[in-house]
């Protein structure tokens, strides 16, 4: 039996690393899509997108992976089409909006599979809370990329359940499945390359007997990792080992201020260490940096991190790693096998209330909130320095850890392994969905916050059309009215040529005799009752047809001013 397919919810913001700032979620999104195309290269692929230009972007991406199967555009305003592949992959955890869209059609139409990236933004935390009140179903899932992020999600949901129970007396709280599945990488991209290693080290001036530490990622004090503990630990390691040390920072700065802070910090905290700044956005430069390093280091101290791809990439490159004992690093790096995790310390929960208040009130921006948080996270500098010294002095240990990490990356984190788990999850969700009882066909399914404007504002007009209303084409106004519509047509919502064609076809079917509205809706050979009403209302708006109330129906309903 063929593994389940996925419809990819596609917007370039989640997958494009060329034309947008390089961030972890985009890098992970592109890596996932590359691997998905490789896995399904000869099969049909499905893209759920709001705009045709986004679908074309999806197709262009597929071409770079030499996909030969047909690409299908599933329109976001016709969500029922996702039932063909059966599972919608959404590149984030906030799946509530799509659950609402599905609910209005068929709750069992398909499953939704989301994934966690950063979960500390207000928008994402609100989205996770919404799972308990949106029509998210047990045949949906949000993949937690680490055990740490799963526990954080559980904390948030527990608090929301407690609130709803106290506020409304609620006792039933459906939620999605929350499996822990890591992000993946293409491990082949990180294979050893001795020639490139030699070339890169020579260009940077790193001697054969000198040890190069490597950091890859955004160079951000508040958005990734404060560099001071790394700098201080390297300086102590240099003094204690007596070895010439190098630090390759393969990354990118968001601002000139951050660039200056890193460069000044390096001079101040580790003057004995030679620092090399490499543009991590350049594929060739980043590839050379991966091969030139001897030890990878990432002392993340930031709540924005949830999984952490770079230590896994380092393992795939055969490098031993020294990382902070933090979030997803605790899953991926096995202590004293693939590398060394150094202890971290976080301020007690009660001391974060002021930070929450300021962020919730928009007094502090998201960046300021992250910065205030990260200054309350401590990485053990002495333990880090000792880990550095241990690896500096033992090349054999570096090789053994590097080999173990490479085997682990290939066996557990290669996308082809991870995508197999995605497909297994999709099959499980399909089984749950198909076993669920059919929804009550008589039950009205609405999205309360997104009601039809013609329902929510039905009290605004004098009246609405009724089945017994009489409709007559005013022949003397047809041509002039159609020309007026042509001139008035707004390119934002209408294609003028198509609209004129549809209006004339509709008018031909109406004929010249008076006709009852119910006959137009039920008997005319026009596609879709909604389209018929839309055409009729457009013609009436421009005086081409007249809609007369049925006998006995008030033409003007009383208003509050009438007493």
What's the short version?
By secondary structure, the chain is of the alpha/beta class. It is 44% helix and 13% strand.
What's the helix and strand layout?
Layout: E1 7-9, H1 24-39, E2 45-49, H2 52-64, E3 71-75, E4 87-89, H3 96-103, E5 111-115, H4 122-129, E6 141-143, H5 147-168, H6 194-204, E7 211-218, H7 228-241, E8 245-252, H8 256-269, E9 274-279, H9 283-292, E10 295-298, H10 309-316, E11 321-324, H11 329-332, E12 339-342, E13 344-346, H12 353-360, H13 366-374, E14 377-379, H14 381-392, H15 395-413, H16 415-435, H17 453-456, E15 470-473, H18 478-488, H19 496-510, E16 515-516, H20 517-523, H21 529-541, E17 545-548
Parallel strand pairs: 1-2, 1-4, 2-3, 4-5, 5-6, 7-8, 7-10, 8-9, 10-11, 11-12
Antiparallel strand pairs: 13-14, 15-16, 15-17
Helix pairs in contact: 6-9, 7-14, 10-15, 12-13, 15-16
Question: Can you tell me about this structure?
Answer:
The chain has 563 residues and is an alpha/beta fold. It has three domains: 7-183 and 419-435, no CATH class; 187-413, Glycogen Phosphorylase B (Rossmann fold); 454-548, no CATH class. 44% of the residues lie in helices and 13% in strands. The strands form four sheets. The protein has a six-stranded parallel beta sheet with strand order 3-2-1-4-5-6, covered by helices on one side. Strands 9-8-7-10-11-12 form a six-stranded parallel beta sheet, sandwiched between helices. The protein is elongated and about 100 Å long. The relative contact order is 0.09.
**CATH architecture level-2 label of the largest domain:** 3-Layer(aba) Sandwich
Large-scale geometry: elongated
CATH homologous group name of the largest domain: Glycogen Phosphorylase B
Find the count of extended strands (DSSP E, 2+ residues). Answer: 17
**Low-confidence residue ranges:** none
Largest beta-sheet details: 6 strands, parallel
- How many helices? The count is 21
* CATH domain class of the largest domain: Alpha Beta
Instruction: For the record, give the distance between the C-alpha atoms at the N and C termini, rounded to a whole number.
Output: 70 Å
Integer tally of domains: 3
Residues in helix, %: 40-55%
Rg over CA atoms, rounded to whole Å, is 30 Å
Within the largest sheet, what's the order of strands? 3-2-1-4-5-6
Question: In percent terms, what proportion of residues is strand?
Answer: 5-15%
Structural class: alpha/beta
CATH topology heading of the largest domain: Rossmann fold
Average pLDDT rating: 93
């Amino acid at each position: 039996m063929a593994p389940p397919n996925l419809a990819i919810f596609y917007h370039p913001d989640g997958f494009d690393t060329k034309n947008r700032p390089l961030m972890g979620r985009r890098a992970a999104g592109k890596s996932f899509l590359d691997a998905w195309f490789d896995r399904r290269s000869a099969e049909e692929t499905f893209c759920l997108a709001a705009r045709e230009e986004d679908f074309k972007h999806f197709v262009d991406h597929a071409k770079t992976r030499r996909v030969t199967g047909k690409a299908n555009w599933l329109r976001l305003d016709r969500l029922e089409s996702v039932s063909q592949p059966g599972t919608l992959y959404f590149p984030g955890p906030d799946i509530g909006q799509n659950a609402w869209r599905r609910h209005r059609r068929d709750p069992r139409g398909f499953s939704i599979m989301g994934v966690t990236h950063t979960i500390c933004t207000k928008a994402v935390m609100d989205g996770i809370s919404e799972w308990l009140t949106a029509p998210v179903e047990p045949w949906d899932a949000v993949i937690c990329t680490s055990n740490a992020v799963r526990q954080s999600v559980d904390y948030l949901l527990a608090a929301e359940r407690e609130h709803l129970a106290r506020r409304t007396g609620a006792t039933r709280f459906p939620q999605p499945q929350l499996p822990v599945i890591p992000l993946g990488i293409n491990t082949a991209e990180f294979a050893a390359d001795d020639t490139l290693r030699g070339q890169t080290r020579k260009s940077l001036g790193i001697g054969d007997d000198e040890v190069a530490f490597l950091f890859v990622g955004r160079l951000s004090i508040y958005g990734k990792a404060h560099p001071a503990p790394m700098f201080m630990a390297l300086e102590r390691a240099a003094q204690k080992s007596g070895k010439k040390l190098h630090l390759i920072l393969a990354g990118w700065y968001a601002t000139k201020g951050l660039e200056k802070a890193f460069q000044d910090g390096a001079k101040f905290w580790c003057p004995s260490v030679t620092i090399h700044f490499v543009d991590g956005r350049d594929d060739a430069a980043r590839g050379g940096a991966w091969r030139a390093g001897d030890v990878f280091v990432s002392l993340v101290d930031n709540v924005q991190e949830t999984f952490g791809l770079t230590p896994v990439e380092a393992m795939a490159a055969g490098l031993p790693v020294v990382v902070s004992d933090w979030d997803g690093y605790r899953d991926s790096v096995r202590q004293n096998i693939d590398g060394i995790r150094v202890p971290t310390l976080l301020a007690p929960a009660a001391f974060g209330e002021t930070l929450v208040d300021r962020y919730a009130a928009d007094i502090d921006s998201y960046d300021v909130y992250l910065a205030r948080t990260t200054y309350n996270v401590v990485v053990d500098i002495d333990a880090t320095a000792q880990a550095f010294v241990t690896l500096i002095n033992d090349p054999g240990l570096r090789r053994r850890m590097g080999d173990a990490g490479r085997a682990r990356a290939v066996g557990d984190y290669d996308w082809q392994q991870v995508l197999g788990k995605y497909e297994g999850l999709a099959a499980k969700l399909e089984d749950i969905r198909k076993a669920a009882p059919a929804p009550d066909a008589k039950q009205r399914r609405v999205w309360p916050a997104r009601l039809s404007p013609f329902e929510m504002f039905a009290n605004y007009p004098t009246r609405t059309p009724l089945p017994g209303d009489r409709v007559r084409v005013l022949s003397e106004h047809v041509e002039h009215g159609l020309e007026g519509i042509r001139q008035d047509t707004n390119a934002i919502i209408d294609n003028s040529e198509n609209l004129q064609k549809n209006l004339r076809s509709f008018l031909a079917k109406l004929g010249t005799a008076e006709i009852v509205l119910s006959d137009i809706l039920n008997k005319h050979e026009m596609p879709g009752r909604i389209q018929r009403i839309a055409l009729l209302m457009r013609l009436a708006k421009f005086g081409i047809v007249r809609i007369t109330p049925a006998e006995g129906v008030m033409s003007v309903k009383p208003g509050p001013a009438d007493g």
